[in-house]
Amino acid sequence: MQQQKLATIEDVAAIAGVSIATVSRAINEPTKVADETRRRVNEAIARTGYTTNAMARSLRMRRSNMILILAPDVGDPNFSNILVGLETEASKRGYGVLIGNTQNDAEREADYLRFISSNQADGMILLTGHLPYGHAQPGQETRLPPMVAVNEPVPNSDIPFVGVDNFEGSRLAAEHLISQGHRRIAFIGHSTSRAVNQLRERGYRAALEAAGIAIDPLLILDGDGTTESGRQATEHMFVRDVLPTAFLCINDATALGVIIALTARRYDLPRQFSVMGFDDISFASFVTPSLTTMKQPRLRIGEAAMDMLLGLLEGNRPDRNSVLLRSELIVRNSVAPPRSSLP
């Protein structure tokens, strides 16, 4: 049986209708090749099955062409579409991705840094909100590569950040509730440590202050973003007999907890209470009532973050150290004008 001839770079060049040098640039320096040319080269590579000697190229260029993504929980509904954006942009530029599911565990993060110390990754995307544990521990010191923070900025650092404008999004969410006639609006998600929570609370406060509504500290409750924290906060309000007409929640998971607690008490939503989320994760349109929320452009966030990181790897400093994308109000069925009196 005759052995099938391996495809060569000449084969790829002939099918793509470009020179061998252009094929080489498309593989090794994709940002220096026009999008349409790069697309034709990639299609020709796929048709021929041509493979480059990635290890030899990596040694020659001292690059792995891999990006390490550190995420606290890959099961987070916000993660999947951000990952699609990250991976899509990386692939377009000739890079692959490695995913580190840290579970906020210091040992796991230190272990993942092996990819950096052994030159198996050229840069990092941080969804953790902090620098990796272990990067400066005795015996484990690792020189960190270019990094971009996504979703949650890294406090007290100059690490570039890409995410949604949390302040503006929360302000718009609170304004929507106010426009429906609500004046007693609870905020669930107060935190002294999470930058995202603090920004969203500031947006809530700004909207109330602009509308001339006094801020009631009893209507601001702690929340860690889980469904259980939303349920507990709602029960806490009933125990204290301090009730709002609407709940503005730090995220959709918290809003689900509020809906569960109110439904268990047999309230008719949104006739008796309105509930507002943030993020527009997959289940938001399937709960009862379907959740009015602020939609994050997660795909664009991932693409913008990877574009910024690959620019850093090419020696290009970004024009801005942070890119904030606007969230979009998604109106469904969980918000309505308040009743004239509290239930």
From TrEMBL:
Keywords: DNA-binding, Transcription, Transcription regulation. It comes from Devosia insulae DS-56. GO terms for molecular function: DNA-binding transcription factor activity; transcription cis-regulatory region binding. Residues 7-61 form the HTH lacI-type domain. SUPFAM superfamilies: lambda repressor-like DNA-binding domains, Periplasmic binding protein-like I. The keyword Phosphoprotein does not apply. It holds the Pfam family LacI. SMART domains: HTH_LACI. This is LacI family transcriptional regulator.
